[in-house]
Amino acid sequence: MTQITRIGFRWMMIAFFLAISSSVLAQENSDFQDSPPDPAAATLTLIADGFRRPLGYVSADDGTGRMFVMEQGGVIWIVQDDERLPEPFMDVSDKISPDALGNGYSERGLLGLVFHPAFAENGTFYINYTDLYGNTVIARYLVSPDDANRGDESSEAILMQVAQPFANHNGGHIAFGPDGYLYIALGDGGAAGDPLGAGQDTSVLLGKILRIDVDNADAGGYTIPSDNPFVGQEDFAAEIWLYGVRNPWRFSFDRLTGDLYVADVGQNQWEEVNFVPAGQAGANLGWNIYEATHAYSGAPAPSDMVLPIAEYAHNLGISVTGGFVYRGEAIADWQGAYLYGDFGSGMIWAAYRDASGDWNDLVILDSITSISSFGQDEAGELYVVDYNGGIYRFSPNS
Q1: Which residue has the higher pLDDT, 17 or 333?
Q2: Are 292 and 272 in contact (CB under 8 A)?
Q3: What does the CA dihedral 374, 360, 285, 278 come to, rounded to 10 degrees?
Q4: So what's the pLDDT on residue 219?
Q5: What is the mean pLDDT of residues 332-354?
Q6: At a CB cut-off of 8 Å and minimum separation 6, what does 278 contact?
Q7: Beta-bridge partner residues of 314
Q8: C-alpha span between 111 and 73 (Å, rounded)
Q9: Which residues contact 332 (CB under 8 A, 6 or more apart)?
Q10: CB-based burial label for 139 (10 Å; 0-12, 13-18, 19+)
Q11: Are 207 and 219 in contact (CB under 8 A)?
Q12: b/e string for 347-369 if b means 16 or more Cβ within 10 A?
């Protein structure tokens, strides 16, 4: 190759990498906002009600437009075209902790539901529930071969069981990541203040978000991805993806960027939302050394601790509920904003990055709901689940 050709080739490669870098930067900066999301851009519209203590509104992402309402007591309903179908999709109430079936307060029950990314082909879905003894169970189910609107209750295959030392802080959320792996949120096991030290104890599964491979299962029902951050490390459970959480009540992946958002319920004074960039493994979110950005246990903070992007004190709410980054088309002004709320106050915030890349948040709605969860449909439109029985859609103000 002549010197002129080599020089030309070098400049061509420089231009190529600059173009890639510019594209990456453009994608990274695509959600930076010159102005905050407009709270007046949308309102909540009731689309379905009459549910008993609903905890989730989940899409099968199978092209049917169906949404699935998960009730704490173990019943799952289908909503299609804003109408509830007359028969439940599945009823596993006979497997659920008895205290989740009554009218009293309980953090147990049917806590998580997710459909396999290839559900349209394989009919597989997963639930997270606390069993008759209060222990966490992750189970796989199949849709009925005779009825696409009915889960086969006899098809249960248990993938994971985790003993729960107390009745609270079970976590419960499950979701597939952009990588096709199943992520599982487990709280610190309960009581108050993390008496067992589970959040920072990397040898146990409590106080963590786990990552497992359900498509290449061994006899135990799953395998561990080889690129999990602590595979082969002494004193680390290989399932761990991140640690240092108290009671993560809903996490989600940005469907555009793959970034992970984790809402973690606080202890005495502070609720928090954490941001983990796509692909960043092994993050320590700080509990119980810190509660949000505030020292809690008195132990020294590790150098790699990740601080939350948003927090609020208990004068504004009592229990954070994580939502989603808005990626729908109906409310253009909210593009790229992460919505989350509070179970007690019903306030809903939007967290967003300004033009400088700094995180900000603002109250987007002051709703009347006891926000137990958020939902996202196939088109990226968002919903709010009211623990009192209603499902609401974020609708643009005309």
Answers
A1: 333
A2: yes
A3: 70
A4: 65
A5: 97
A6: 178, 253, 254, 257, 258, 259, 260
A7: none
A8: 9
A9: none
A10: buried
A11: no
A12: bbbbbbbeeeeeebbeebbebeb
**Integer angstrom CA distances of residue 392 from 351, 383, 386:** 20, 5, 8
- The 3-class SS string of the chain reads CCHHHHHHHHHHHHHHHHHHHHHHHHHHCCCEECCCCCHHHEEEEEEECCCCCEEEEEECCCCCCCEEEEECCCEEEEEECCEECCCCCEECHHHCCHHHCCCCCCCCCEEEEEECCCHHHHCEEEEEEECCCCCEEEEEEEEECCEEEEEEEEEEEEEEEECCCCCCCCCCCEEECCCCCEEEEECCCCCCCCCCCHHHCCCCCCCEEEEEECCCCCCCCCECCCCCCCCCCCCCCCCEEEECCCCEEEEEECCCCCCEEEEECCCCCEEEEEEECCCCCCCECCCCCEECCEECCCCCCCCCECCCCEEEECCCCCCEECCCECCCCCCHHHCCCEEEEECCCCEEEEEEEECCCCEEEEEEEECCCCEEEEEECCCCCEEEEECCCCEEEEEECC
- Give every CB contact of residue 76 below 8 A, 6+ residues apart in sequence: 68, 69, 70, 88, 89, 90, 91, 110, 113, 151
Residue 398's pLDDT band (boundaries 50, 70, 90)? confident
Which one is predicted more confidently, 3 or 47?
A: 47
What pLDDT does 6 receive?
A: 35
Q: What is the CA radius of gyration of the chain?
A: 22
Query: How far is 182 from 165, CA to CA, in rounded Å?
Result: 24
What amino acid occupies position 214? V
pLDDT digits (tens, 9 = 90+) for 165-208: 999 999 999 999 999 999 999 999 999 999 999 999 999 999 99
Contact 138, 128 (CB under 8 A): yes
Q: Which residues pair with 242 in a beta bridge?
A: 209
Q: How far apart are CA 348 and CA 334, in angstroms?
A: 13
Amino acid at 41: A
* pTM, 2 dp: 0.92
User: Is domain 42-396 given the CATH code 2.120.10.30 in the classification?
Assistant: yes
Beta carbons of 208 and 240 less than 8 angstroms apart: yes
15's tokens: 């231009």
- How far apart are the C-alpha atoms of 10 and 20, rounded to whole Å? 15
Cis peptide bond upstream of 274, omega within 30: no
